Amino acid sequence: MASYGGGYKGGYGGGGGGGDDAGGFVYGSQQGSQGGNQKSQRNETLRPLTIKQMLDAEETYPESAEFRIDGAPVFQMTFVAQVRQVNRLQTNIHFKVDDGTGVIEGKKFIDADKSDEGPEYTIQTDDYVRVYGHIRSFNNNRHIAIQVIRPITDYNEIHYHLLEATAVHLYYTKGQLGQQGGGGAAANPAGGDSMFVDDGGYGGGAGGDANQHAAGAAKLGNVSAAARRLYDFMLNAPGGNEGVHLQELSKGLGMTAREVLAAADELLGQGVIYTTIDDETWAVLEY
Questions:
Q1: What is the CATH number that goes with domain 46-174?
Q2: Whole-number Å distance between alpha carbons of 141 and 146
Q3: CB 97 within 8 A of CB 129
Q4: What pLDDT, on the 0 to 100 scale, is given for residue 78?
Q5: Which CATH number fits domain 216-284: 3.40.1190.20, 1.10.10.10, 3.30.428.10, 1.20.58.100?
Q6: Which of 187, 165, 162, 163 lies closest to 174, judged by CA?
Q7: What is the C-alpha to C-alpha distance for residues 178 and 167, in angstroms, rounded to an integer?
Q8: Cβ 275 vs Cβ 235: under 8 Å
Q9: Single pTM value for the model
Q10: What is the rounded average pLDDT of the residues 52-59?
Q11: 116 CB burial (10 A radius; 0-12, 13-18, 19+)
Q12: Predicted confidence band at 125 (pLDDT cuts at 50, 70, 90)?
């Protein structure tokens, strides 16, 4: 399971399927050797990021190549994005990539004697890629020094990365799930959130479920009475992560299948429920 500086070990929503590509290395441990070994361990820290986080990263001093995000130092990082432009030169390949939060450019230096051998040579415009590297700044322009870039073959990796980057961001800004404070929370005392994650229900303290339900109810908007009945029923239904099926909802609410489908469409449109194992099974999206 992925581990990040300060003790985050992928505790948000259980383990993921990212494997080695999504993992990281612990830094800042109180155990282990000192001196050069600590420096080596620190420099091997890998953190999942979005492009917006990289563009907004705090630079220690101009062109220092040392950056902090959410109050924590960032050395090596990884992200997932779509290629917008590829320019192959004799000594490097220049990429422009976009992950939906921002656009950034990067360079992958190549060995002229080993041309056309690496995965970077197969990448085309509009491909999705996984990138590993370092943030760099020159003349106030951010770019990426790419160490590894490879095409994505399993598109679940895109969603997994965004979830993982959000989980690590929450760890540093709000503390480990189920705890109050911790992580890098002190670095963000005003509660500002660069990834626009809702605050409701986070932290697992008393009243957390009530906050989650209130946050969802506040997003219902002008839905019908049937949709509100459906939402209230699903909040208390023992469906777990698999959700509640159409037939169970119809029986429990005394509504026809057509009425349940119409109400579910309203709630889906408001973004407060989502489909799970099939198109007729839904679960409440917790905030």
A1: 2.40.50.140
A2: 16
A3: yes
A4: 95
A5: 1.10.10.10
A6: 187
A7: 13
A8: no
A9: 0.54
A10: 90
A11: exposed
A12: very high
